[in-house]
Each structure stands twice: as C-alpha cells, then as structure tokens.
Amino acid sequence: MSSISKLILLSLLCHAIFLTKCDDDEEDRLVQGINQYRTSLNLTALSHNERAECLASELADQFKGQPCTNSTGSNTIPGTEPQFPNFQNLLTKCHLNVTTTRDGQIMQACVPHLDPSLVLSNFTMSQYSGYLNGTQFSGIGVGSEDDWIVVILTANTSQGDYGLGTNVDNGVPGISGLGGCLVALVVGLFMLL
C-alpha cells in the first residue's frame, strides 16, 4: 500500500512540475470578444495564427514592468508607438521575416489586472477599432504579460500572413497550449506504469 501511495504522490508531483499553464484565459476571451465584435459588423471571424501569437507574446514580454499611464497602450498617439531595437531577433525567434509581417497590425493595451471587459473595450472602442473593422485582416495572435496585452492582426497577403520567412530557421516550433498539457499528461501516465 505504501508503494502505491508513493507512486500516486510522485505522479502528482510530476504533474505539478511539468504541467504548463493550459489556458490563456485573457487571450482566449479577447479573441472571442473580438470575433463577436467582427461578426456583429458582418465581418469574418479571425483565425488563430501561431506565429503572430508567438510575436505578440514576445512583444508583451518587452513591456514587463512598464506601468500603465495615460499615454501608453491604446492611448498612444499614432506615430509614437514604442520601437523595439531587438525586433528582428523577436521575429527570428518566432520563425518570421519582416517581409511576411508588413501588412499586419500590432496593437497593445495596458489594463490593470487585464479586466476582460476593459481589455476588449480598449480594442473595440479606441483608435484600434478601425483595424478590427478592416476586411484585409484574417488572422489574430494575442500575448500578455502583467497588465499588458498585445494583439497582432494578420492579413491574407504574402506580406502580412505571418508565414515562414525565407531567411529564418524554419525549425519545429515549441510545444505550447494544449500540446504542452497533453505531453505532461502522457509523462504523468507513463510515470504511473
């Protein structure tokens, strides 16, 4: 009986160690809200774009520790958006090339505690709504860090589809989301055997 208890305890410990965050609630709710907003305007829903999501997450990480102010996020005056000197490195990390991102749109918002209703209104009731209303956009990627959330819209053009770049390493992307949860589950089950 003692060995079975130890095995169960070991399995639970492995799950706690290896199990990744399996839900991106803020991001998922925002995508759902944006798609409902677009549907209400008789526009097509945006499809998930993994590479845009990767870049959005990397960009959100760049805002880590930066406080919300009246001149950040969706309140930013057009033309004064933050510039990232390491942007090319972020593109490479996400297996992107600048030529496949030109027609896309990057938008960021800072909302304390990422309150879902405020996050959505920061995109649908701001200068960003013009982009969300655009028929040229077909995909979306979202990433968040602290109080910051970044949305990237992708276009259905070769210069905006966030497809693989021609001069970047086209390696296998990392396991994330549901894939990470499944890997952790299989490892946990294997440990039980």
TrEMBL record:
InterPro entries: At5g19230-like, At5g19230_dom. Keywords: Signal. It holds the Pfam family At5g19230. Residues 27-153 form the Uncharacterized GPI-anchored protein At5g19230-like domain. Residues 1-22 form the signal peptide. The keyword Signal applies. It comes from the Eukaryota. PANTHER family: OS07G0645000 PROTEIN. This is Uncharacterized GPI-anchored protein. The lineage of its organism: Eukaryota, Viridiplantae, Streptophyta, Embryophyta, Tracheophyta.
